[in-house]
């Protein structure tokens, strides 16, 4: 995806398709992903890039070891 807005729109469309086909596991996965994207967008309104999974994880869990940044 080129932007977070495109990714959000794609997930919303795929959720509707998965619901129509009765694919509940995919609906749950996409709903979780959509929630993470919307939270990221809310926390970083000026940032328009499509965040990767690590960026989404660290936005939600900044104190996790994978997300800590140390200054030397």
From TrEMBL:
Skewed-composition ranges (Basic and acidic residues): 1-13
Segments for region (Disordered): 1-27
Domain of life where this protein originates: Bacteria
Domain annotation CP12: ranges: 4-72
Record protein name field: CP12 domain-containing protein
Species the sequence originates in: Prochlorococcus marinus XMU1408
Lineage of origin: Bacteria, Bacillati, Cyanobacteriota, Cyanophyceae, Synechococcales
